[in-house]
Amino acid sequence: MTATLEIPDLGWREGGQGVLRGDLLRLFRKLDTLWLRWADAAGALEIEPPPMLPAHALQRLDYFASFPHLATFACVHDEDAENLAVFGKHPWQADGSGLALGRLAPTTHVLTPAACYHVYLDLVGQDLAAPITVTLGTRCFRREKEFHPLRRQWAFHMREIVCVGTAEEVRAHLASHRTKMLELSERLELGATFEHATDPFFNPGKSARYLMQKIDPTKEELVFGGDLAIGSLNFHRDTMGAAFEIRRGGETAQTGCVAFGMERWLFALVQTHGLPGAIAAVDRELDGGDA
Amino acid sequence: MTATLEIPDLGWREGGQGVLRGDLLRLFRKLDTLWLRWADAAGALEIEPPPMLPAHALQRLDYFASFPHLATFACVHDEDAENLAVFGKHPWQADGSGLALGRLAPTTHVLTPAACYHVYLDLVGQDLAAPITVTLGTRCFRREKEFHPLRRQWAFHMREIVCVGTAEEVRAHLASHRTKMLELSERLELGATFEHATDPFFNPGKSARYLMQKIDPTKEELVFGGDLAIGSLNFHRDTMGAAFEIRRGGETAQTGCVAFGMERWLFALVQTHGLPGAIAAVDRELDGGDA
Asked: What gap in Å lies between CA A17 and CA A155, rounded to an integer?
């Protein structure tokens, strides 16, 4: 992993969470403006999704079998007054390790693990007469074994540009963004390269989907510094279309998404240019790049 | 409660969550630009906080005794492989009411219930030589008995402008924004008025803090249509300063915040003007208002 970097304007909180301030926050905004321009150039609709997904939406993907280790659940107490009162009086475990939760209400929602699921959920049951492209930026939550500022956080910002269409339409979407991402990496002097990758399945040796991804790669990651994936291109074929019952011209729709891990871009840019230099580089891009 | 309104460009998901699209999302952005201008005029620093708060930060405020019914907890499984595998194989309760969670890891974090807590947490142990003003916009999570699109959501956007200083400095901050909010409501023809209010304490009759708020009101809400609080002014005196060990010139700091419930402003604006009219009204404000 890339050496630790002192990041100006970054606060770091226990539990793998960052606070962005000042110039680092300005850099974040400028970068997102850049992706929004890319999305606009691709004719994307923009949505602001809610922070949680219904568990049954993730069940359509067998998410809990594939990624049980990553999920963060939105839990609330059963609203029985005595149940709440007991928790209110004694909210801590005796050993101080965490909260002494009482009886929970049914757990129906999961904190968003990947932005694009919101897009498919909005299209359940539809048959599209034309491809659609949607962009959304949202916090994603993934519980990991360890956290590193900007590089691996429990909660991080993901910007995606998602295409739902025929295989050909989706392939064209991914190919055009592959080129744009490489050219951008070059102009920003990041030296990032695309590498085939797999999703972080639980118990991968036993996962048919993992084996499938190994045999027939459908995920490419844009890797900075040899080990930090700052973006990815994901071709889901008809997995999402089948799971969410989305069709395109009568056939099961195919889908693909272009994803940017926003905090990791901040890391890569600041590591490469320092913070003022990173802002200047993205400003140049916004002023005159191909975006 | 105000009559149900057909909101264009709003998606509504089970679990009290909204999806903003198109012109409604544009209106949201314009409104936030307006608050950011107000924050800038008040000399505020801006931060982008993480979505979760450490439970021990809320414990400083006795939050779990006061608001156990509102809290949403960020829960994850104990990472033992067998524990995860069992959940992955049988993720649902037999009655389908929710997920069949296995053994949880210690619960250490809570989804942000109010934006301003992030500000105090960042200042723990500091003695400020001058007042500081901070703005932040973030998703807040409050579990309620029922939800209504834009008006009462499990997750909603709150923009705050927070002042930490002496009593006099905080009072001046709140007073100037009280005037600005009333003038804005008038220009936008919302007809909103300030009313004294209390926080939604659990078991209020037994809460010393609730009784205190009744006797000596320190919370005013800007109320639209007779029953919808779209903003609030909160004077915490030294409650937050004492809880988070923040001083101002050697004395326990006083704090106050100006808060805007973003979705509720969308509701009030669209109810009053329709969506195109609401955008035009906020555009006029951005072009020439006193912001």
From this structure: 6
